[in-house]
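Folding Task

Wanted — backbone structure
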Amino acid sequence: MFYARHLKGAPRTYYKQNVELNVEKHKFHAHNVLQRQRGFASFGRFKQVDFEPQAVKVLCKYPFSGYLYVLATDGVYYLSPRPVKMIDRAFDGGDCTLFDEKAIFSSNNAGTYALSFDSSEKTDVMGCRHVVNCCGRLIGQGDGWIRVCEADSYDDVVHAYKFDIDTALAGAAVSGNKFYALGDVCFLLEPDGDMIESKLRPIAQNVGSVQGESVVPLGERVVFASRNGLKAVISDKVTNLFEDIVDLDFDGATACAFRGHYLVSCKRAGYYSEHNCVTLLLDVERQKVVGAFEFGFDSLYSESDDVYGVYDGKIYQFIEDMALSTVVIDKLDFGTSNKKFLRRAVVRSRNDLDLWVCSDNVKRLYAFPGSDKAQSRLINGYGEDFSLEIQSQDGFDLDMIRLEAYAYGED
């Protein structure tokens, strides 16, 4: 049931509209992860992790404890579950891989470290932009070179490669027994037993500027984003993906694997506000978009079904909502087609409630903790009409949702 009343005033009209949810009129959806709803998938939600320092990225999950290594602006931390500083210095980025029961962290500007849950050890290996575990060997990639360590060693370099082609390398990944160094020119290395016969060879040129944080192994493929679009490398061939998607800007994109799909966060081309990001779940095999969040992350990391995102210095963990109650209400126009300024929303709900407000292709989330008292949130949104998504993990115990707006011009 909806009703609206307005008070005339010059030069604008003030509206209040109460939205009352009637269980006989609205269907409450209990949907699982990746079930479609109005063209988007409902994954669940991201919950903030208790981590006080300013996070840069989640590096890896330590398999023997399940806790995280996190790169922050002032060093590397072990989250167990409280943050413990393992390396006390600032880094210009960094990469991490698991090797020989240790987490190997490497930074281009400050060397390579071997980390366990209670200690850190700086190795003799020079710092690398990316570090991976390939066939029991640690491989580090820097600017114009690759170094391969002795088998089962993280500090004894047995072979080094320099590139004959002047190219900037941004990403590295392992698929099967193949190591890929990715940039505008992409290279393939297939290590043999003693590295003597191993050859590093170029397999593609003019790929575009590869976004290093977007490189993700998916089965036999390695998927990545360049400024020229999404691409995949299989064996020694690079192919284009999702060529029909033309409104995305992959500069600065970050990605991870999620249940066999490619989860990528990037900007939308042509949008220049702070809300211009989107996170897409892509089925690379079928070339289909299977889900989306209308917000973005500065960094993504996944391990099995665990997904972590970093945004604005804070860490968020994906929580699968198996029975998230949702009501979708489209085209609230306050009875007029004029442009409107949606000023605020007032909610009284005894259970925690998330209110998504969408207008002019911008979608924002407003959280209301459960309370017996009415709570107000400033919306400050513009549009001709608005849509709402009202979600609660614990079911609805809702007395009121009231929207307040101004409409401009004559009716």
In short: The chain has two domains: 2-32+323-408, 42-319. The first strand starts at residue 2 and ends at 8.
